Amino acid sequence: MRVLPLLFLLLFVQAARADEATLGASDRAAIRAVVEQQLAAFQRDDGGTAFGFASPTIQQQFQSPDNFMRMVRTGYQPVYRPREVQFGAIVAVDGVIDQRVELVGPDGAPALAHYVMQRQPDGSWRINGCFLTAAIVARELDVRLVDTVCVTSYEDGAKGTGIKGKVTVLKTIAGDGDGYLIIDDLVDTGHTARVVRELLPKAHFATVYAKPAGRPLVDSFVTEVSQDTWILFPWDIEPQFIPPIARR
Fold first, then answer.
1. Out of 62-76, 105-119, 224-238, least confident range
2. Would you give the DSSP letter of residue 18?
3. Under a CB-based contact definition with an 8 Å cutoff, are residues 67 and 51 in contact?
4. Where in the chain are all domains bearing CATH 3.10.450?
5. d(Cα 176, Cα 64) in Å, to the nearest integer?
């Protein structure tokens, strides 16, 4: 089986809401510096330094830098050897500090990493976990190949308004989807899902949330919500449309 994530599922997706973390500028800078320095250590294969930025809980779990680096190399390639790194928002999800980082892995595939940060008794910050949600699914299902189908359907500023643009397929894969598991966060009207279903009719389509209009298009979902329910995901923390970094 192969996992085909349209959007990387967020570990914290069941949280009721995510708020901009109330941290001072110095804490924000310190959190970013810790993540940047660990990424730099991975690039140098400096396991000792990278391990030093992990929280005591993580260090106890892995026991040694060698064990830690083995885990990163085998399960976290976008973190181990990123082509691109863009820092996003720092949010608080039920009191947990989450630093969002957008990565492009060594294979060119995008990945969304969530760094769970932990303040230490001396006031410093350590990394208490990094979650690449596609990697979590792949590990639990013993999947060896992760790929993406990339589509766009919302016009600029229209997300959340119900106004859809033309569905454009930016990237697809060969075949009819046989043996693939497609994962998305939400099926809403089914406008986009219908196009993906036509591209890969034999794939198993799973979402976290499903609304009535789109529910017939998916094979599995966790929670059904009404069509007029607005779900606030941690990546939708702004009350209005915010242009992507590339357009600013």
1. 224-238
2. -
3. no
4. 12-141
5. 44
Strands in 36-160 per DSSP E? 84-93, 96-104, 110-119, 125-132, 150-154
Q: Is 98 a catalytic residue?
A: no
- 183-210 confidence digits (pLDDT tens): 887 889 998 899 999 999 999 998 878 9
Collapse the DSSP code of 141 into the 3-class scheme (helix H, G, I; strand E, B; otherwise coil) and give the result. Answer: helix
Q: Give which of 30, 71, 25, 29 is closest to 50, Cα–Cα.
A: 71
- Determine whether 188 is an active site residue: yes
Concerning whether 219 is annotated as a catalytic residue, the answer is: no
Find the catalytic residue in 184, 219, 228, 236: 184
CATH number of 150-236: 3.40.50.2020
pLDDT tens digits, 81-129: 998 998 988 877 667 788 888 888 888 877 788 888 899 999 999 998 8
Active-site entry in 122, 188, 219, 228: 188
Catalytic residue among 27, 94, 178, 185, which? 185
Place of tokens 């192969």: 2
In this model, does residue 162 exceed pLDDT 60? Answer: no
Which amino acid, one-letter code, is at 68?
Answer: F
Determine the Cα–Cα distance for residues 202 and 199; give it in Å rounded to an integer.
9
CA distance 236 to 246: 17
Strands 204-210 and 110-119: unpaired
12-141 CATH choice from 1.20.1260, 1.10.287, 1.20.1740, 3.10.450: 3.10.450
Which one-letter amino acid corresponds to residue 94? Answer: D
